[in-house]
Design a protein that fits this description.
eleven-stranded mixed β-sheet, Immunoglobulin-like, Rossmann fold, alpha/beta, 11 helices, about 500 residues, 3 domains
């Protein structure tokens, strides 16, 4: 018995000293797996990990290019390839990776157009809706999602806040079916189906969003640390990665959602970004333009792909009962629009007409298809350069006070109103004031690309506002059916 014990320990010692073939495990970075969509006709980065410290050689082969690439993993086991992708195709491809001990094959890979959708709950809202917050006609859209199998792939990024920038996060790509589409973000889904129909190529949508989060939560710490009042030392911040389930996390924390839910896949080749957020910043509109633009700049810089398109959604008409005063929501929308004029390839979807009159206290309005469609119009017109697409909204540009035989009125001039307006009578949502800053309901007339605004109660008009309230449903649109963006001609403090 003693002899057997000695032999056993000798064998164990020898086994520990010998190379361990078969123990290596090759892993891929976030977003890289079965059913992934990779950006067409681009230099695409693929990365992952294998044995640490061994500088293992990793071999890559793609089904569209039979030649092999080899790289050595670094001391931390990280490897990276740059792959030239072909033109978009609905033919599933494979990517084969091997570190000598293990071979991994990524299957059902599509080459097409890839977009990242992020923000808070109106982006997170699934196709079947939230409890008590339906998506209009969701049963019909879920049923019709069967048509997009093999055309649209959907990827959801797991809830994963973190106090530090991390390299990994759980992501799952899925082909589009009723079972997968119903739980995917509605706005991203509608954008995706409209895009695949228009371009006739595969589309991949990545959803990384979380309700009630501020723009500061999705911005790198190197930027947010320059803002006053942000705390990076509290236990709530430092332990944010330990909080489960998702509804228990403090949604007002800075940086943690960027750290855990955006940073891990920076550099994954995209065509552009979609964004639906600002409700959580409605109390501080004075900071929103700057901080939103800072976030967009940082994402573009971190991706290193130039001025990637960034299209976003105006917050909807809603009472915003938690706002400090009733002007802050209108000022936030104004701040959102200002951002679109500060960077190239930025575009805002107006939602003033996409709320039912009974949704006064519904922060998740049901008309999500129209939001996704309008985001797609921006992409088709601005990113893909499709001629003839109407994607810009009539926007106020200048005003002039003029004398008429009925008294003084204000004449307004608009950009992007080449086809005039959708109605000549019954225009709602306009107010006018005199030097006393008291606002009165106004009557409005159309004159080509211009509007005339007046009120018998205002003898000396000085300013006009349109739909400039927390909840105000205007009914004025351009000739193409896109709504006039809410505005004010004044800069009064209230």
């Amino acid at each position: 018995m003693k002899r057997y014990c000695i032999s056993f320990f000798i064998l164990m010692f020898v086994a520990l000293c010998l190379p361990h073939k078969g123990l290596a495990r090759i892993t891929t970075g976030p977003l890289m797996g079965d059913n992934m969509v990779i950006q067409q006709q681009s230099e695409v980065r693929l990365w992952g990990w294998t044995d640490k410290g061994a500088q293992t050689t990793v071999t890559l082969r793609t089904s569209w290019n039979k030649s092999k690439q080899k790289v050595k993993a670094d001391d931390n086991g990280r490897w990276e390839f740059t792959v030239q992708t072909p033109a978009a195709s609905f033919t599933p491809q494979t990517i084969t990776l091997s570190d000598g001990d293990e071979t991994r094959v990524l299957t059902n890979v599509l080459v097409g157009e890839v977009w990242l959708a992020s923000g808070q709950s109106n982006m997170e809202m699934p196709l079947h809706g939230f409890e008590g917050c339906p998506v209009e006609n969701s049963a019909q859209y879920i049923n019709e999602s069967m048509k997009y199998k093999g055309r649209l792939h959907l990827c959801t990024v797991a809830f994963s806040p973190h106090p530090e920038e991390v390299d990994t996060v759980t992501t799952v790509w899925q082909d589009c079916t009723p079972a997968t589409a119903r739980d995917f973000c509605a706005v991203g889904y509608f954008f995706g189906i409209k895009l695949t129909e228009a371009l006739d190529c595969p589309v991949g949508i990545i959803n990384s969003s979380l309700g009630a989060t501020r723009v500061e939560g999705w911005t790198p710490r190197s930027i947010v640390s320059t803002y006053a009042g942000e705390d990076f030392t509290s236990d709530t911040y430092l332990q944010s990665h330990l909080v489960r389930p998702a509804y228990n996390v403090n949604r007002e924390l800075p940086c943690v959602f960027y750290n855990g839910m955006i940073h891990p896949f920076e550099g994954y080749c995209l065509r552009g970004f979609l964004w639906y957020q600002a409700e959580a910043n409605v109390n501080d509109p004075q900071w929103y333009t700057e901080r939103f633009v800072n976030m967009v700049r940082s994402w573009r810089e971190r991706w290193g792909m130039g001025d990637l398109p960034f299209y976003y959604v105006e917050i909807c008409p809603y009472d915003y009962f938690w706002a400090r005063d009733k002007a802050t929501a209108a000022l936030t929308r104004e701040a959102q629009y200002k951002a679109s004029e500060m960077l190239p390839h930025m575009g805002m979807v107006c939602t003033n007409d996409l709320v039912k009159d009974y949704e006064y206290w519904q922060i998740h309005p049901c008309m999500k298809k129209e939001v996704g469609d309008r985001l797609c119009y921006w992409a088709l017109g601005d990113t893909y350069g499709v001629e003839g697409i109407d994607y810009r909204y009539p926007v106020y540009r200048s005003m002039q006070v003029e004398e008429t035989n009925r008294g003084k009125q204000i004449r307004l001039t608009f950009d992007y109103a080449d086809d005039g307006f959708n109605r000549n009578v019954g225009i709602e949502g306009f107010e006018i004031c005199g030097p006393d800053s008291v606002w009165h309901k106004a009557s409005v007339g159309t004159s080509g690309r211009q509007l005339t605004v007046r009120s018998d109660e205002v003898k000396e008009p000085v300013a006009v506002r349109y739909a400039f309230k927390s909840f105000e449903l205007g009914n004025l649109k351009g000739g193409s059916g896109l709504p006039v963006i809410p505005f004010r001609t004044d800069n009064f403090p209230k």
